[in-house]
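Here is the promised in-class demo. Please do not try to memorize the tokens; focus on the logic of going from shape to residues.
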């Protein structure tokens, strides 16, 4: 499973990228607002830092303006992936841009039917939102599983990008179900390493090494 980092924080991306934990980046208007950066400037810097796809989202909702924004975002760097909402206008833009060879991430997916439509429109990635479904007492992982089954039934090449990831358990479950990608905030990815038995085991090893006077160099 590929790891995308869901942030526009350059320092956080760089830290994980240096560890080999970044296969791509996803941003959205909310993350750009949080960063305090200009969207074009921030996207360009991220694209220069990361080799994989960098999702940059349109803000228009009507077809004509959305297409203009998508075409402009696509000129920022070769690894830009234009992000569009799962609406009829968004799917129309997806069809046009993907036909030109531009990667497209169709976002705000909450049903398997929507995921099937996005695939038919040529989406590179489909982004089902796990956490937001969980908020409504609907198991978001069930949606990932349904999409995985449908895509596998027909050898659909659109990649399932599990989004709205909120915990290390979400990452594990997405991997078990077979999501192609999971995008998560930097803190969630970093928390995946934590386990109390690792911490207590290391503390015991350090204590015993001190008592034994062990020195390697």
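The designed amino acids, position by position:
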């Amino acid at each position: 499973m590929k790891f995308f980092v869901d942030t526009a924080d350059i320092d956080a991306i760089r830290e994980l990228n240096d560890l080999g934990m970044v296969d791509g980046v996803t941003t959205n208007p909310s993350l750009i607002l949080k960063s305090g950066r200009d969207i074009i400037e921030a996207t360009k810097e991220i694209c220069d830092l990361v080799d994989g796809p960098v999702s940059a989202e349109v803000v228009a909702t009507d077809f004509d303006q959305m297409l203009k924004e998508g075409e402009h975002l696509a000129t920022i760097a070769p690894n830009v992936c234009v992000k569009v909402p799962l609406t009829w206008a968004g799917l129309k833009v997806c069809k046009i841009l993907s036909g030109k060879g531009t990667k497209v991430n169709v976002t705000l997916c909450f049903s398997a039917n929507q995921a099937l439509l996005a695939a038919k429109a040529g989406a590179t990635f489909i982004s089902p939102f796990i956490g937001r479904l969980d908020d409504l007492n609907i198991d978001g992982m069930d949606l990932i599983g349904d999409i995985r089954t449908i895509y596998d039934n027909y050898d659909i090449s659109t990649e399932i990008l599990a989004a709205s990831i909120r915990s290390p358990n979400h990452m594990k479950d997405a991997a078990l179900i077979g999501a192609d990608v999971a995008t998560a905030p930097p803190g969630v990815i970093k928390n995946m390493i934590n386990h109390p038995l690792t911490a207590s085991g290391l503390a015991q090893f350090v204590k015993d090494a001190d008592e034994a006077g062990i020195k390697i160099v």
